[in-house]
């Protein structure tokens, strides 16, 4: 889940990890999304595909040590990714936001301040998202249409509020676990071993071994015949359903 152990972050952040893991296990009943929805609201974890396509994503909330190296690696393999950025990170690193946009990557919302959204009211969520979206749009000229909940935490009121703003909430089905500072080889084995058609992979822009792992991951998946696309190109448009695992399927 959205569990941060980014380089040089305090160990106290581990307190968030258990809660986020519990959220991942709490995926409930099937949800129909589109013109109508049933009671249980789920974000999109992955997409039903019958061919080898996937999306890789990066969450940017604090550090910025490796963003340019990641951009360079993605450019080397002509891969476009989706970056979920926090508004306060945009304030600190506007040049990196511009560089990501100039390189052709999607820049989407990860909230304005990495708050626990399940504790916020509808009005607070709306203000938070609009504030972050305004910051991103001011630099890129493009308003975000996707949102990733901080800590991976969500409930029905969070998801319904996000969708009421015309945004789609996005999770992931493959966690690289780079936030644990595991080795590049471990990250590579984990991602390549779990990816399937329609997967959404989670990385972080400031995790210790992500830049080292990326080339081997991309090369391995390209050799397997996978195509990389931004998440907005992966997800289905119009009527669809979301099953109990969070997989988006054609209606």
Q: Can I get a quick summary?
A:
It is built from nine helices and twelve strands.
Give an overview in words:
- This protein is of the alpha/beta class and 251 residues long.
- It contains 9 helices and 12 strands.
- α6 links the parallel β6 and β7.
- α5 (122-140) packs across α6 (156-164).
Number of helices: 9
CATH class label: Alpha Beta
The structure class reads: alpha/beta
Distance between the termini: 27 Å
CATH architecture: Alpha-Beta Barrel
Would you tell me the overall average pLDDT? 88
- The helix/strand order is HEEEHEHHEHEHEEHEHEHEE
Report the uncertain regions: 1-38
Radius of gyration, rounded? 17 Å
Shape: globular
CATH topology: TIM Barrel
Domains, number = 1
Task: Give the amount of beta strand, in percent.
Answer: 15-25%
SS elements, strand count: 12
Main pleated-sheet profile: 6 strands, parallel
Helix percentage range? 25-40%
CATH superfamily: Glycoside hydrolase/deacetylase
């Amino acid at each position: 889940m959205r569990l941060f152990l980014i380089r040089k972050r305090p160990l106290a952040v581990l307190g968030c990890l258990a809660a986020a893991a519990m959220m991942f296990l709490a995926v409930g009943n099937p949800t129909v999304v589109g013109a109508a929805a049933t009671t249980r609201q789920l974000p999109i974890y992955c997409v039903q595909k019958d061919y080898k396509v996937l999306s890789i994503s990066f969450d940017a909330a604090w550090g910025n040590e490796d963003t340019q190296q990641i951009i360079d690696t993605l450019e080397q393999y002509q891969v476009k990714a989706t970056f979920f950025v926090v508004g306060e990170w945009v304030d600190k690193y506007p040049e990196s936001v511009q560089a990501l946009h100039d390189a052709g990557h999607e820049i989407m919302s990860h909230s304005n301040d990495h708050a626990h959204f399940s504790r916020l009211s509808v009005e607070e969520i709306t203000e938070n998202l609009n504030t972050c979206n305004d910051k991103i749009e001011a630099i890129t000229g493009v308003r975000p249409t996707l949102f990733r909940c901080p800590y991976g935490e969500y409930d029905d009121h969070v998801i319904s509020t996000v969708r009421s703003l015309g945004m789609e909430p996005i999770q992931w089905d493959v966690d690289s676990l780079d936030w644990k500072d595991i080795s590049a080889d471990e990250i590579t084995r984990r991602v390549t071993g779990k990816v399937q058609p329609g997967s959404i992979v989670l990385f972080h822009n400031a995790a210790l071994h992500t830049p080292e792992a990326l080339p081997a991951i991309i090369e391995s998946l390209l050799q397997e015949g996978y195509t990389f696309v931004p998440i907005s190109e992966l997800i289905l448009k119009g009527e669809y359903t979301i099953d109990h695992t969070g997989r988006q399927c054609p209606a």
